[in-house]
Amino acid sequence: MSPYIDPSTASAVIDLDAFAANIETLRAHVAPAAVMVVVKADAYGHGLLECARAARDAGADWLGVATPGEALALRAAGDRGLLLAWLYGPQEDLTPLLAAEVDVSAQSVDQLDRIAAGARAVGRRARVHLKIDTGLSRNGATAAEWPAICAGARCAEQAGVVEVVGVWSHLASADEPGAVSVGAQQEAFENAYRVALQAGLQPAIRHLANSAGAMIWPETRYDLVRLGIATYGIEPDAGIADLAGISLRPVMRLRAQLVNVKAVATGAGVSYGHTWHAPAPATLGLVPLGYGDGIPRRAGNRAEVGWRGRRAPIRGRVCMDQFVVELVDRQLSAASPVVEVGEEVTLFGPGDHGEPTAAEWAGWCDTIGYEIVTRIGSRVPRVYLRRSASGDSAAAEGEGG
Ligand SMILES: Cc1ncc(COP(=O)(O)O)c(C=O)c1O
Q: Are both 165 and 257 inside the same structural domain?
């Protein structure tokens, strides 16, 4: 018996046509810059392998991941395209990555030395992107460390073990229109690039922009943009798509069946701690997803789900595997007085049928749309929607883990 929730009971429905359409829209928007689709963290919860394949089909020039494990999973699944991995620890063996022809990021002389050793071990020149910290204060070499890294990389190039193909960095506040840090980071980036050239390197690919940068800061696009959240149809922040003059469609619809329905009397306390009491007789539905599946506990008494084209508010606390919604449907009550177990609710989706979006959930839960979709756990089956291979418009469904 599989440890996952049965897909009829609850699933995250992933619209791969919407994903492809978002990528095509963004590709046209950033041209002539090339596009890397970021599929780390299980493609932001949407499914690594299926999204990677769909991104390549939609014309992604590159894929980007954080960890070596993610990159190797893509290679094991047959992906052979341009692929960059940028986050690994001091103990990790980089040779499998280099053998699999994955581009790697380096931000220190130590990392370069390990990459060079790995390249010697596998007998293949490593393709490296040198990372400069231009102001995020996260990964990347400081300006003080940068000249030594460039010099070390040049030596490794001359030894024939490394090829520096890119210089890159990451923006801190591109989702804030008018943020002064963007210009400052860009200036630091261009200085770093000049230092690299002076060291004798010839990195052909400069990349700085994430979704927000690519969408509303054209000067940050350089040769390649790294697009994550926007490809999944979620704005980096409210209003960014309008500012860019493009429209994106959310790719994930999280839905479930009501697994229980009951009437409670005035005053009934609902869920752990009785943080909500029915002010009048109420009909309650039980949704079989909880914080064990990535539903934020913060959503208790705050968020809503879509039901019968309207909204049903969450009542009481979100539990590990389930939460309770109040079902109020006065308009339909004469025609269908009873709410049936098995009726469908949509926690979030594109919003076409009155359901909330991930962005709305982010507002209720004091977080960002990124976290809402990425946290949806492995117990929730992903069901993939795509047009059939024959090209007609009938949707085909496939399931993934
Ligand atoms: C280094 C790097 N580049 C690009 C991205 C994609 O960012 P976004 O999802 O905002 O497009 C991320 C995501 O966090 C990242 O860590």
A: no
Q: Which atom of ligand 1 is nearest to the CA of 231?
A: 11
| Residue 218: inside a domain | yes
Q: How many domains does the chain have?
A: 2
Catalytic annotation present for 272:
yes
> In terms of Cα–Cα distance, which of 124, 94, 125 is closest to 111?
94
386 marked ligand binding residue? no
Q: For a substitution probing ligand 1, which of 23, 132, 170 has the most ligand atoms within 8 Å of its CB? A: 170
Contact (Cβ atoms closer than 8 angstroms) between residue 271 and residue 317: yes
Mean pLDDT, residues 213-236 taken together:
98
pLDDT for 155-213, tens place per residue?
999 999 999 999 999 999 999 999 999 999 999 999 999 999 999 999 999 999 999 99
What range does the domain containing 369 cover?
252-387
Ligand 1 pocket check for 220: Cβ under 6 Å: no
Choose, from 88, 232, 262, 272, the residue flagged as catalytic.
Answer: 272
Q: Which domain CATH number covers 345?
A: 2.40.37.10
Determine whether the shortest distance from the Cβ of 38 to ligand 1 is under 6 A: yes
Ligand 1, atom 2, lies closest to the CA of 170
Question: Does 127 appear as a known binding residue?
Answer: no
- Residue 192 to residue 222: CA distance in whole angstroms: 14
Same domain, residue pair 260 and 319: yes
Is residue 132 a part of any domain in this protein? yes
Distance between CA atoms of 127 and 166, rounded to whole angstroms?
A: 9
> Domain check: are 68 and 212 in the same one?
yes
Compute the distance from residue 315 Cα to the ligand 1 centre, in Å: 35
